[in-house]
């Protein structure tokens, strides 16, 4: 038995914690129905190694923001990220994904 799946895009953004509000504003502007924030992520990049903080200060660590959205919404967010990345470190990944509950991700509050 095959389940009906709808193709969408998965967006993953890694930025310094102090940029989380700018990311939330971009997602709101794009009318994204929801997102997940994972604080205190660790990893190695162009700026060296970033270690997650075990204390209660998300602003001094890296955060990962994940969302599922339409291609049109991706375009809105990526335009804003271009401006943000001119003044801040960070990276964004966009990949194809399939979802089971399409209306859950692209509902009345979205642009599509």
Distance linking N and C termini:
29 Å
What sequence of helices (H) and strands (E) makes up the elements?
EHEEEEHEH
CATH topology, which one? Alpha-Beta Plaits
Taking all residues together, what is the mean pLDDT? 83
Q: Which percent bin holds the helix content? A: 25-40%
Low-confidence stretches: none
Strand content: 35-45%
CATH architecture: 2-Layer Sandwich
Structural class: alpha+beta
What is the CATH level 1 assignment? Alpha Beta
Write the layout of secondary structure elements.
Layout: E1 6-16, H1 20-29, E2 36-41, E3 43-45, E4 48-50, E5 62-69, H2 71-85, E6 91-99, H3 102-105
Antiparallel strand pairs: 1-5, 1-6, 2-5, 3-4
Task: Describe this entry's structure for a reader.
By secondary structure, the chain is of the alpha+beta class. The chain has one domain (12-102): Alpha-Beta Plaits (2-Layer Sandwich). The chain contains three helices and six strands; from the N terminus they run E-H-E-E-E-E-H-E-H. It has helices spanning 20-29, 71-85, 102-105, and strands at 6-16, 36-41, 43-45, 48-50, 62-69, 91-99. The radius of gyration is 15 Å and the shape is globular. The mean pLDDT is 83.
Entry summary:
The chain is an alpha+beta fold. The chain has a single domain, classed as 2-Layer Sandwich (Alpha-Beta Plaits). It has helices spanning 20-29, 71-85, 102-105, and strands at 6-16, 36-41, 43-45, 48-50, 62-69, 91-99.
Could you name the key traits of this structure?
112 residues; Alpha-Beta Plaits; two-stranded antiparallel ribbon; 36% strand
